[in-house]
Amino acid sequence: MQTPLGHVGECKLLSWTTNILPPSMLPLCKTMGSSTNKPDKLEEEDVQTSPKLTSVTDSIVKPVVVLPTPAADTDIPARDVVRPVTESKHVVKGTEVELFGMRPRCLHHNLWTPYTEPMVMATEWTLLADPLPRPPQSEFENLAAIQTITEHLELFEIISPMNVGVLEELTTAHPNRVFVRSVLEGLSNGFWPWASTVKEGYPLMWDESRCIQLSPEKEEFMRKQVKHEVSMGRMSHEFGMNILPGMYCMPNYVVPKPHTDDLRLVNDLSAGPYSLNSMVDHQSVVGYPMDNLSQLGELLLRNRDQNPGKRFVVWKSDVAEVYRICPMHILWQLKQALRVKGSLRIERVNVFGGSGSGAIFILLNALVAWIEKYKELIKCLIYMADSFGVEEEGVVERYEPYKEVYPAWQMQLLKLWDRIGIPHKEKKQLSGGTLMVLGVEVNVNNL
Description:
There is one protein chain. By secondary structure, this protein is an alpha+beta fold. Helices cover 26% and strands 15% of the residues. The chain has helices at 7-11, 94-100, 122-125, 137-140, 143-151, 164-170, 177-189, 216-231, 293-306, 330-333, 357-375, 408-420, and strands at residues 41-43, 206-207, 211-213, 248-249, 252-256, 263-267, 312-318, 337-340, 343-346, 381-383, 386-392, 396-399, 404-407, 429-432, 434-437, 440-443. The strands form seven sheets. A four-stranded antiparallel β-sheet has the order 10-11-7-14. It has a two-stranded parallel sheet with strand order 1-3. A two-stranded parallel sheet has the order 2-4. The longest helix has 19 residues, at 357-375. The chain is globular.
């Protein structure tokens, strides 16, 4: 836990570079405002579902990733991998036709064989991943924003459950040092979402918040959620009814969490003419590779081939409070004012609804997955917050904090997460011969 005192000055001296070129400082045509085309009050039925959120999972992987073989003085196994550049996702390759024949589009990439070259995994992709960006220099030249931070330091804090020292120790052998250091820097001083907030025509401060009449159930959820976030330090105390210079305030909603009966608090960072998501370089936040079911199929078939006659289980572990473990830079926290029942607070961490939110977490989790594979030799895959894998039936170990036995690889993963400081919950640690993985029921013994 850190206070931001001094961070603004320090950031000017950082050597991190960003792939976003900040625009020239132009006079802002507005200094303050709020959306004029929104209703004063919305009924709950007007917001039945989550606002449209940009998702990195909907995009195609970035082209051309050539992975180098690590230097000879490391013990990291790797091979050269070249990703296709212009291949259409609707083209059926000849080798696939020979193996599988023509099949429905819904099975695209969900049929596999143990004899094909495995797809690039998130762990290998980190070897040539670009470093995460730091705030552009223009952000530090926004004197009104700097003054607000300086005069209200108590509102801003860098907070995360992650143990940066342990993560640094476990990644010393990672070949892509600039990427690793950028992740460590983000955890220590806050992540930056590939954005430029100093844009021509954008006001210095903007209030896009909306008053929504919630049902009693959602009202109670909101109250408890805010209380929890404040207790965790991820949300500041109330500081009044009016935003301060440099602040932006976007709408927030209580919506059902997908595939559950639970609720979720989301931020609509795409709302209005001056949305936070419009400040983000969208080309930089899409296309990050994540492991999928075909890689799970390859892993399963290799295990069956190496252990004929054995039975297996599939297991799955989820990171708790996903994006919220990633602190945001204080200059971005300034843009994350949140209005709850009229009063304002500051969101200090990554939020659901940001264009760069998913990318930040995927990059962090991919580095953790590299540790799992190459340092701890844990055989598992990752997709967003899901980690999943295959284990021989009956090979279990006891995890004392939950007083339960789990497949050995899953138990080793939970122990590693505890060392790094990644939160998890008992109800999200699952295993069995048949299990839902990425929305598909997988039966590992009947294939």
